[in-house]
């Protein structure tokens, strides 16, 4: 059997610490990985103590991920070269403006054949135009890079609230290994080859998010907030639509969808549950129900009496996660 892969998380901010929590827990129980996961910490003093000392003693990153325990096998290391020098897998997760300096520091001082994965959302801009951060790292360090991006608010991930994420990776074996390192029951990973698409979407959405914040500050509505991107209606409906609102009340009150529709919508009609039923029929005819677990779960809860508490467990077994 191959030697256990040593993992280093390059970064220890909000997302860096949340991902270290996952990776540390996975590495501790998977013999493919060395059980010690190093995490490079940009050293600073918090309440008179070094942050690395706090993390290694109390196992909490009190500044960037307060209130969540890190596994004891996550070792905070203040020296970047020392943290990364013996790693087989480097997880880059720092604010993108610091990546140039980090690469310069470890250039020529890491193992050959290292697998890199960037969780950094951002782009580099230079004389040749836009450059992906993973390309910057690849060029500076000469290592093979993948990316991981998703709708992954760090605090929610650390609290083990269900979410999905995507690894963009050209090499199937690398993708499978990285998935094994990152996936949990509540952090579900899909691997795709189109790493550049994954990365650019992860980077550009942050600009849209700023626009959304402006809309909120100026008092505009949900349609306005979503008008700037191609998935406008999806985002709008998930935040402010009637289907979302009634479905939330369905969970909280235990009343039926029909009752709530009458009570809450004053004659307006919900489209979501009916559409789920129509689509369910189409999928059934085409023998495709298993390929659409979200649609199927909504249908079963609305029409077949399935307990809504099981909603997440339906999604945890999405065919893309297998
Ligand atoms: N926080 C999230 O919810 C989240 C989720 C997904 C992706 N991301 C992305 O992950 C990346 C990292 O975000 P984060 O939330 O872990 O970081 P963060 O926003 O918490 O940033 C703080 C980190 O930057 C470090 N830092 C400060 N000055 C530095 C310097 N000069 N050199 C190097 N490091 C320095 C700090 O020590 C700390 O570890 C970003 O690209 C972000 O977009 C964040
Ligand atoms: O808090 P933000 O705006 O940096 O977004 C965090 C993550 O990127 C959400 O997926």
From TrEMBL:
Subcellular location: Cytoplasm
Keywords of the record: Cytoplasm, NAD, Oxidoreductase
Enzyme class of the recorded protein, top EC level: oxidoreductase
Single GO term (MF): NAD binding
Glycerol-3-phosphate dehydrogenase NAD-dependent N-terminal domain boundaries: 6-173
InterPro entries: 6-PGluconate_DH-like_C_sf, 6PGD_dom2, G3P_DH_NAD-dep, G3P_DH_NAD-dep_C, G3P_DH_NAD-dep_euk, G3P_DH_NAD-dep_N, NAD(P)-bd_dom_sf
Record pathway: Phospholipid metabolism; alpha-glycerophosphate cycle
Binding residues for substrate: 121, 242-243
Positions annotated to bind NAD(+): 11-16, 42, 98, 154, 242, 269, 271
One biological process term in Gene Ontology: glycerol-3-phosphate catabolic process
Catalytic residue list: 205 (proton acceptor)
Domain Glycerol-3-phosphate dehydrogenase NAD-dependent C-terminal: 227-312
Reaction equation(s) it catalyzes: sn-glycerol 3-phosphate + NAD(+) = dihydroxyacetone phosphate + NADH + H(+)
Cross-referenced PROSITE patterns: NAD_G3PDH
One GO cellular component term noted in the UniProt record for this chain: cytosol
Main subcellular localisation: cytoplasm
Enzyme Commission number, as recorded: 1.1.1.8
Family the entry assigns: Belongs to the NAD-dependent glycerol-3-phosphate dehydrogenase family.
PANTHER family linked: GLYCEROL-3-PHOSPHATE DEHYDROGENASE (PTHR11728), GLYCEROL-3-PHOSPHATE DEHYDROGENASE [NAD(+)], CYTOPLASMIC (PTHR11728:SF32)
Biological role: Has glycerol-3-phosphate dehydrogenase activity.
NCBIfam families registered for this protein in UniProt: glycerol3P_DH
Quaternary structure, from the entry: Homodimer.
Protein name: Glycerol-3-phosphate dehydrogenase [NAD(+)]
Organism: Neogobius melanostomus
């Amino acid at each position: 059997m191959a030697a256990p892969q040593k993992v280093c998380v390059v970064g220890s901010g909000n997302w860096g610490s949340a991902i270290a929590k996952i990776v540390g827990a996975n590495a501790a129980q998977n013999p493919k990985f060395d059980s010690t996961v190093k995490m490079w910490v940009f050293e600073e003093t918090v309440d008179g103590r070094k942050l690395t000392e706090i993390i290694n003693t109390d196992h909490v990153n009190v500044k960037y991920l307060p209130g969540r325990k890190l596994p004891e096998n996550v070792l905070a290391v203040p020296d970047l070269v020392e943290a990364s020098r013996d790693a087989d897998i480097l997880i880059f997760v720092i604010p993108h403006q610091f990546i140039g300096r980090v690469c310069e520091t470890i250039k020529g001082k890491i193992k050959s054949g290292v697998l890199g994965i960037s969780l950094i959302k951002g782009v580099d801009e230079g004389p040749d135009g836009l450059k992906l951060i993973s390309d910057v790292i690849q060029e500076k360090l000469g290592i093979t890079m993948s990316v991981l991006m998703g709708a992954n608010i760090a605090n929610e991930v650390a609290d083990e609230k269900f979410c999905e994420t995507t690894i963009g990776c050209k090499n199937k074996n690398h993708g499978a290994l990285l998935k094994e390192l990152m996936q949990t029951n509540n952090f579900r990973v899909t691997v795709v080859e189109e790493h550049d698409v994954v990365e650019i979407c992860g980077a550009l959405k942050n600009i849209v998010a700023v626009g959304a914040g402006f809309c909120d500050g100026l008092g505009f509505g949900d349609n306005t907030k979503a008008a700037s991107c191609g998935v406008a209606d999806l985002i709008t409906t998930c935040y402010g639509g009637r289907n979302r609102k009634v479905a939330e009340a369905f969970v909280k009150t235990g009343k039926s969808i029909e009752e709530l529709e009458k009570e809450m919508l004053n004659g307006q009609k919900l489209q979501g549950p009916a559409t789920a039923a129509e689509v369910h029929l189409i999928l059934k005819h085409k023998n495709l129900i298993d390929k659409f677990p979200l649609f199927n779960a909504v249908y079963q809860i609305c029409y077949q009496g399935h307990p809504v508490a099981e909603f997440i467990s339906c999604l945890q077994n999405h065919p893309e996660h297998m």
